[in-house]
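Bench log, entry 3. Co-assembly request; chain sequences pasted below exactly as received.
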Amino acid sequence: MHENLKLSRFTVIIGHYGSGKTNLSINLALDLAATYDEVMLVDLDIVNPYFRSSDYTEMLGQNGVRVISPTFAGTTLDAPSLSAEVGAAFDCAGAVVFDAGGDDVGATALGRYAEEIKAIDHEMLYVINRYRNLTGSPAEAAALLGEIESACHLRATGVVNNSHLKDETTLETVLDSLPFARETAVLLGLPLRFTTVPARLAGELSPEPGAATHVENAYPIEIHVRTPWEDVS
Amino acid sequence: MTEKVLMKGNEALAEAAIRAGCRFFFGYPITPQTELAAYMAKRMGKEGGVYLQAESEIAAINMVYGAAGAGKRAMTSSSSPGISLKGEGISYMAGADLPGVIINVQRGGPGLGGIQPSQSDYFQATRATGHGDFHLIVLAPSTVQEMTDYVFRAFDLADEYRTPVMILADGMLGQMMEPVVLPEPKTEFPEKPWAVTGHKGQRSHNIVNSLHLQPERLEETNIERYERYARIKATEQLAEEYLVEDADIVVVAFGASSRIARSAVNKAREKGIKAGLIRPITLWPFPEDVISAAADRAKAFLTVEMNMGQMVDDVRLAVCGRKPVEFYGRAGGIIPTPAETLAAIERLAESLEGGAR
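Structure output for the full assembly:
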């Protein structure tokens, strides 16, 4: 299904804290690894020390994704510094996903690379979640993007509807979010690039446009970002 | 609003406080609780309240003292090292019988420690938050929903008993996201005839103070406060019991580690080990009645904590030598895994079968 989504070779992921940027970035990177020999996931979050791409470096490495992390990520040293290694991403012959930090504060670090990113053909996807507190209306979600864009000196090129309620996500959760996602995209004048659907629910979708359970441009995702008690091994 | 929204634990703590009528928040940033202050900064102004980033943790807690003394619902939040700094002010609040809510989103210690989750401030919260004879009511949430509900409850308890109340959370709970139903904003509040709001010539002075230079008077205040503590102990103990009824091994865990323990208990049951879980919700007053009752039936206890063994002392006091009480924990910001917790349950089960009971 997602073969049709035509993922860009350079994708920048931005959004609200907790909108699901990291989980989406991991899914995108793993999918791109099926197409490209070389895939990099650049963790640009220098604000939040928990639940970040760098926590998944080992799993991603085993699946052909190289993770570039802030210098002190995961060391419990609360020092916000970016690695010079990030520069390597712009010479990558394969695909690169940039996972920015949340909100305008988290996206500030992205601004350091604004000129480099503008110089290459890229997509910048704004991740929205209807169920997140304070960004649950199209107007709120649209307003936050303005703050993020002025912090990182880059413009979003598309919207990703990642509306979910973690493990309580049902097909209705996704379907009920579609009007919000469309309206937010219209307000922003941006295309709604795709809507994520937990892989476990993807089979329940109808492929027929117009059907009640049809989701246009559905992107099935696995849930990688979990709390430790969900470790079932 | 009954619709579920997705919130970070730290945001839920802040939003619930606003809905509980808190209009005075004084804080100082520290990982991993900073989102709480950031959320307050965004929301408090819109609610006509005060968000103030103080010059230090010590200043922040004393601002809470001031707002609480004037009869307002006030809160501060920090993480472990910051709570140590607030210790003096918390003791002053207890000494002046002031209500207020203090949030500790714990990180590893001692010293500057780390920024990953921990439960190593259990002793500090339940024994020695500051100098002098006093207790705080301490509530330990284990989900983002409970972060919301317990903050709401904390303000009511604080007013009812005129005592500071602490929410003892940890970095994992603060940073993780879960769906929550937010409570309706509170509109009715208890009268505070003791508050220092200006007597306007209509009544005698109200005094909020913790200094009593006459030992007899100071002893009197201590005795009165301990009578109140006895009432709290008798009525406010709270714990959740899970599969305890027929359990041979009762795991005792609070907060984030109780979620690990619950997974491990389920796994143990699948393997035929009769395990159960008691999750203390109030850490002070400690739910000793529930633990003591379980000690009549269970063969052994295992506490699971993100520290070197602190709550285990309270479990031992409640069990009072009747059954063995073992401890399993990880420290420094490491969260025990369900698998290693299960292994600890299995070791205990084997030792019981070995006849050493």
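Residues 5-235 of chain B form a domain with the Rossmann fold fold (CATH 3.40.50.970). The radius of gyration of chain B is 21 Å.
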